[in-house]
Amino acid sequence: MDLGGAYYNPKDQVSALETLRRKLPDLDTPPQPTPKRPRPGRARHLDDAHIQQLIAGYLSGSTVYELAEQFKIGRNTVCRILRRHHVPMRRRGLTPEQVTEAVQLYHQGWTPPRIGQRMGVDAVTIRRRLREHGLTIRNTQQPDRRQAGEG
Fold this sequence. Notes:
Number of helices: 7
Region (Disordered): 21-44
Protein name: Helix-turn-helix protein
Low-confidence stretches: 146-151
Structural class: mainly alpha
Distance between the termini: 75 Å
Order of helices and strands: HHHHHHH
InterPro entries: ATPase_terminase-su_N (IPR010332), Homeodomain-like_sf (IPR009057)
Mean pLDDT: 82
Domain Terminase ATPase subunit N-terminal: 101-126
Shape: flat
């Protein structure tokens, strides 16, 4: 193969290689240290006194979310503790009136997380009820189309 023929022009190839070489890190300078990432926290175990406080709080009306925040544990952990101690769980859900309101708010442009926050339930619950009413859930990347003065 004749590389030095009349149509051979290495200038473009050499300049492309030079451009790529400039993008490589300089071997004379020390590498940047990797950023410190927070290590995952250890699971928090509640002692018997705190478990009894958690159960008493739930039985007196506190929500799983409130107790999770109060005891600095996950919502699922609160539920596991309550189930392990055979505490009957409350199912909040939505009343038919709340479902009707959720549908209206969704038609006004509210997002399921925002509706859920207003009604004190998870956004998944809102999405499920909206789908049950035949609504197609908007793309999550669409902005919240709230009107001035709402909320």
